[in-house]
Amino acid sequence: MNSDTKIVDLLAQHIDLTKEEIAEVLEIPPRAELGDFAFPCFRLAKTMRQAPQKIAVELKEKIETADTAAFIERIEVAGAYLNFFIKRSYRAVNVIRRSLAAGETPGATDKLAGQRIIVEYSSPNIAKPFHVGHAFTTFLGEAISNLYEYQGAEVFRFNHLGDYGTQFGKLIVAWKLWGDEEALAKNAITELTRVYVKFHQEVETRQELDDEAREAFRRLENKEEEELKLWQQFRDVSLEEFDKIYSRLKIEFDNTNGESFYTNIIPEVIERLREKDLLIESEGAQVVDLEEYDLKPCLILKSDGSTIYASRDLAAILYRVKEYDYDLNIYVVGLPQKNHFEQVFAVAKKADFPKAENNVHVAFGTVKMADGGFSTRSGNVILLDDLLETSVVKTSAIIRSNNEDMPEAELKDSAEKIGLGAVRYAFLRAGRERDIIFSWEEMLDFEGDTAPYLQYTIARCKALVRKAGPATMAEVESVSDAALELLLEDEEQEVLKNIELFPLSIERAGKAYEPSIMMRQILTLARAFNKFYHNQPILRCENRDLLLARLALTEAVERTLSAGLKLAGIETVERM
């Protein structure tokens, strides 16, 4: 059992809070002299009718009468805080033993077993480029899915394709006027983007094109043969392009229903809203008033009877409830859509949709290049494919400069893993609602807050294990508690502490939909290990027991960092 769990159990015996409530407020002090864990007593002041500082003193006296000596070195009161210092020998044995038992899945739990969770992410628009904005939702959604799965949940990955709406009326008209089949076969997205852009250029002087586009979309909604055939063609060629990117990123989805899939369910949405007497006519359109939620009315049907995003998202909720009976339905979509989802969720609640309280919008920021000088095939749109390839090429050059004799096949494989990892990490390392500003120098820095730094640390751990040799590593597998209790140096304890905090970071990252919490934890661990590596001998250690303990610690670090990167969708390499 981890130290934080033991402290939670201990506190739960003496205060009127649940273990979940205690775990939520248990803090990790920023400095070692403040302890390993801190419990703030402010929340107890109201129910206990005492000052938090007095509660802390009395609670310390109660706890110290319990049998805590086995794992707690001491407890200190600092104002309204109880600061817990974990016994060093206990931590050393407990952390390494748990690491050995967990193997390649440290921190994995079954806490969410039985939970059915839908994560909707990526969701590119058919016939449009897959750009870096889609990368944000793709990487963030995949990491969130992995975090929930790692805790035992049954996760369904949804790619809600943008394959419907009035823009397809425009695209159909544009294709009939200016489409080139040969160009479509050569590069589908480029050709579809070209005619779509041309439509918007031409409509400025030929306004009748808008009327033609509306009529084309109406015919598509009525499933007229010509429009439906063109739409299906656009969808198929677009998916072929998208699948190349997903294949490179090793991302797979359980459901790829686009917006079009839900149009047949919209009549059920309309019927439900009418039964609740919620539909109001407004300038010929049908809306739901949301004044009690401090929101503007939600448009359900346009004046011409056509559907919009909101009506299709409401239909999707009904479908997902029936088919998946979900406990949580997560939408990983950009911040600009915040109002849209507030309206959709409000309508679902007002209309008494099943699972109406179980829908969450996980928002994220925007992406920019630091120098503004990124060159792409589509002008001012930064294509994800270009970004990935540029990262891999730059990484290859760095690796070759450091490893002149590396075989070409190994170089290519390493450059792919490190280059893609660098991009992924850049999207996940900071809070998701913060804007990302790409800098190649920062992204590919082998000593910075980057995936290459973490991958390099893992490679360093693997190199130590290789140099130690199979015979020595066999001894490590059966290392004694007495040997592990020798891991008492400050650098060793800092590494152990950060290994132990990894499971807690996973749990908190999942609850907050913030992979960055887990990413920061593995970065802190890597920093701590490299400090230990430089300041303490490992293979040159003269004490055999201490050598085995330090190799066991090295293996625990490698397993933890590798698991963290895997949760982020980042692969490791043997050497760099």
Strand content: 5-15%
At the fourth level of CATH, the homologous superfamily of the domain at 418-567 is: Isoleucyl-tRNA Synthetase, Domain 1
The first-level CATH class name of the domain at 418-567 = Mainly Alpha
Helix content estimate: 55-70%
| CATH topological fold name of the domain at 418-567 | Isoleucyl-tRNA Synthetase, Domain 1
How many strands, what sense, and barrel or not for the largest sheet? 4 strands, parallel
> Overall mean pLDDT score?
92
Secondary-structure map:
Blueprint: H1 3-12, H2 19-25, E1 37-40, H3 45-48, H4 52-64, E2 72-78, E3 81-86, H5 88-102, E4 116-120, H6 132-150, E5 154-158, H7 166-178, H8 181-186, H9 188-202, H10 208-221, H11 225-249, H12 266-275, E6 279-282, E7 285-288, E8 298-301, H13 309-324, E9 328-332, H14 338-350, E10 359-362, E11 367-369, H15 384-402, H16 408-428, E12 436-438, H17 440-443, H18 451-468, H19 470-477, H20 481-484, H21 490-500, H22 502-512, H23 515-535, H24 544-567
Parallel strand pairs: 4-5, 4-9, 9-10, 11-12
Antiparallel strand pairs: 1-3, 2-3, 6-7, 7-8
Helix pairs in contact: 5-21, 7-9, 7-10, 10-11, 12-13, 13-14, 15-16, 18-23, 18-24, 19-24, 21-23, 21-24, 22-23, 23-24
Architecture overview:
This protein has 576 residues and is of the alpha/beta class. Among the domains are: 3-86, Arginyl tRNA synthetase N-terminal domain (Gyrase A, domain 2); 166-249, no CATH class; 418-567, Isoleucyl-tRNA Synthetase, Domain 1 (Orthogonal Bundle), CATH 1.10.730.10. It has helices at residues 3-12, 19-25, 45-48, 52-64, 88-102, 132-150, 166-178, 181-186, 188-202, 208-221, 225-249, 266-275, 309-324, 338-350, 384-402, 408-428, 440-443, 451-468, 470-477, 481-484, 490-500, 502-512, 515-535, 544-567; strands at residues 37-40, 72-78, 81-86, 116-120, 154-158, 279-282, 285-288, 298-301, 328-332, 359-362, 367-369, 436-438. It has a four-stranded parallel sheet, sandwiched between helices. A three-stranded antiparallel sheet has the order 1-3-2. A three-stranded antiparallel sheet has the order 6-7-8. A hairpin with a 2-residue loop joins β6 (279-282) and β7 (285-288). The model is unreliable at 373-379 (pLDDT under 50).
